[in-house]
Amino acid sequence: MTRPNTYRSGPDERGHFGIYGGRFVAETLMPLILEVEKAYKEAKADPAFEGGIREHLKQYVGRPNPLYYAERLTEKLGGAKIYFKREELNHTGAHKINNCIGQILLARRMGKKRIIAETGAGQHGVATATVCALFDMPCVIYMGETDIARQQPNVFRMKLLGAEVVPVTSGARTLKDAMNEALRDWVTNVSDTYYLIGTAAGPHPYPAMVRDFQSVIGDEVRVQMQELEGRLPDSLVACVGGGSNAIGLFHPFLDDPSVKMVAVEAAGHGIDKGPLAHAASITGGRPGVLHGNRTYLLQDEDGQILEGHSISAGLDYPGVGPEHSWLHDIGRVEYVSATDQETLDAFQLCARTEGIIPALESAHALAEIVKRAPKLPKDHLMVLCLSGRGDKDIFSVAQHLGVKL
Amino acid sequence: MSAPKDNGRIAKRFAALKAEGRAGLVTFITAGDPDLETCRAVLHGLPAAGADLIELGLPFSDPMADGPAIQAASLRALHAGTTARKTLDLVRGFRATDADTPVILMGYYNPIHAYGVDRFLADAIAAGVDGLIVVDLPPEEDEELCIPALKAGVNFIRLATPTTDDKRLPAVLQNTSGFVYYVSIAGITGTASADNAAVGAAVDRLKRHTDLPVAVGFGIKTPEQAADVARVADAAVVGSAIVTRLADGLDAEGKARPGLAEDVLGFVRELAGGVRGARV
Ligand SMILES: Cc1ncc(COP(=O)(O)O)c(C=O)c1O
């Protein structure tokens, strides 16, 4: 494959990253998707829109968050110098809010009156409910029953914030089913409703738009690393569910050839334990079409979508954002995976050595650092996206560790 | 695009309906629901019960545009082991008994994508499929399947919806063949019903843009509603109501109770009665 001049120009007019992406939606939604695309294009060109986002990210979300030198973990692993990008310090405790601020400001520009969203771990649901409270808009969150059971604190948070949480009982009752149900709602309420998608997936323009809103992560890292070390980082590591925190960290660096990028998928019980045992769409899946885009999917030979498994509710989506599929195929980003067990170990290591309880999603990226850092020289600058805090996960971690709360 | 070199079954059927001076009944069932054998019994009985065209659902794990009734039908079919290949086998078996009734496969793109577009089209033609309705392929993605299907001689029937405005309609109709399927509500299958006046106006609007027959569906549940639509459109499509009737005939384990196929066909007969009596 020939190397493109830039890795940052995608998608094309029709929403394609190479062969991935696109707009595979029902006709009822198509005019609306085009309307979102047009509105986003106009908003991007309007300095007032950009200014509004910057202001909210600063005053409400608390950005910029630190690029923190994890000294004890660095010493413990004995290799690369490890920095954490502290997305978990954002208001609501994860990177998800970056995207929600951008999209709700867009929804308001478009004159939409009602917000819907899907959520897996509940982080995106909480972030959406939060911005809906802030901007006084009715909010309906679709969440699989299985996820509702394992993420009770976030369900309660969303309700406190005034959102309606609708349990989804179709399929395996997790994130993919919540997304189906949100799409069904949208088809039914096209005139007044905005669908606030939580990751860099779905039909064009969502993958590009969510990436743009999350790129604040990488943009800040670039400036902060310059201040701290006077140069670019050597490698970036992030977990991948749909891929929004990873693409947000990676995208500003895609054209810096010295910067290596590693994305960590959820290997669940192990990729070798069969297609139902993990949620690693790129490492263990193949290209197909779901939820509006062509991308790597967990599916059987007949094209039926499989239910992924991960200890983390935010990663067990059977797809991945289309830009990641492309970055994988052209080899710009390396896609690896971490098992539930490796994740639990890294989760505890981080808590004890750094005094930070990470989200289980982020702990997948930590697990990769544990494998990779010891083999690298001490002047190798490695950045981990600590995408969220782990308060929401303490109940399920306790259960896995056999502790009764 | 010029008229595709398809087998002409759909055009012939609509011409015959026009000659009879009545609208057609299009019935939807999901392939392999609740099991292949029962589905076959229903399928083979449909023409005699009054179905003029048949839509056969290609089951998919994630039917985003469908309501609870067809979602459940899809899952029953998948649990019964239905695949794209077995769906085509059903059509082949049907064709051996009926050379004239058009069969249209309706579903989502991924199972066809996984099968391989060219191979799927070749096998579909060989099985006797006349057209495809693929919900998640808007005109923006025509190169995926629509153009190859038209080239191969399989009709590609597009959905037009209340959100398809006059500006967009030409793009939607451009590569549509066979007939146009007007989705009478903004929503998923098997939920709300549109009011008659709105349907009439929508059909008139479509007719200003195309000479193709217009079938109207989504939300038609009774013979009376089917008759109302038959007064203003070239065909009425009934799906969820038939699928629900089928689901009512399942026992607690989800197995077909004796007489299920006959009961479903009885309901189709009532619907056909409504459609056929509409324009007297
Ligand atoms: C803390 C955290 N990190 C990561 C993810 C995965 O999403 P994405 O891949 O879009 O960043 C989630 C999803 O819920 C999350 O809550």
UniProtKB/TrEMBL annotation, chain A:
The keyword Protein biosynthesis does not apply. Pfam families: PALP. The keyword Amino-acid biosynthesis applies. It is an enzyme of class 4 (lyase). PROSITE patterns: TRP_SYNTHASE_BETA. It catalyses: (1S,2R)-1-C-(indol-3-yl)glycerol 3-phosphate + L-serine = D-glyceraldehyde 3-phosphate + L-tryptophan + H2O. Residues 62-388 form the Tryptophan synthase beta chain-like PALP domain. The modification N6-(pyridoxal phosphate)lysine is found at residue 96. Its EC number is 4.2.1.20. Its cofactor is pyridoxal 5'-phosphate. One of its GO terms (molecular function) is tryptophan synthase activity. Pathway: Amino-acid biosynthesis; L-tryptophan biosynthesis; L-tryptophan from chorismate: step 5/5. Keywords: Amino-acid biosynthesis, Aromatic amino acid biosynthesis, Lyase, Pyridoxal phosphate, Tryptophan biosynthesis. Tetramer of two alpha and two beta chains. The beta subunit is responsible for the synthesis of L-tryptophan from indole and L-serine. HAMAP family: Trp_synth_beta. Belongs to the TrpB family. This is Tryptophan synthase beta chain. It comes from Azospirillum isscasi. The gene is trpB.
Automatic annotation (TrEMBL), chain B:
Pfam families: Trp_syntA. InterPro entries: Aldolase_TIM, RibuloseP-bd_barrel, Trp_synthase_alpha_AS, Trp_synthase_suA. The active site is at 55 (proton acceptor), 66 (proton acceptor). Its EC number is 4.2.1.20. The keyword Calcium does not apply. One of its GO terms (molecular function) is tryptophan synthase activity. PROSITE patterns: TRP_SYNTHASE_ALPHA. It catalyses: (1S,2R)-1-C-(indol-3-yl)glycerol 3-phosphate + L-serine = D-glyceraldehyde 3-phosphate + L-tryptophan + H2O. Pathway: Amino-acid biosynthesis; L-tryptophan biosynthesis; L-tryptophan from chorismate: step 5/5. Keywords: Amino-acid biosynthesis, Aromatic amino acid biosynthesis, Lyase, Tryptophan biosynthesis. HAMAP family: Trp_synth_alpha. The alpha subunit is responsible for the aldol cleavage of indoleglycerol phosphate to indole and glyceraldehyde 3-phosphate. Tetramer of two alpha and two beta chains. PANTHER family: TRYPTOPHAN SYNTHASE ALPHA CHAIN, CHLOROPLASTIC, TRYPTOPHAN SYNTHASE, ALPHA CHAIN. Belongs to the TrpA family. This is Tryptophan synthase alpha chain. It comes from Azospirillum isscasi. The gene is trpA.
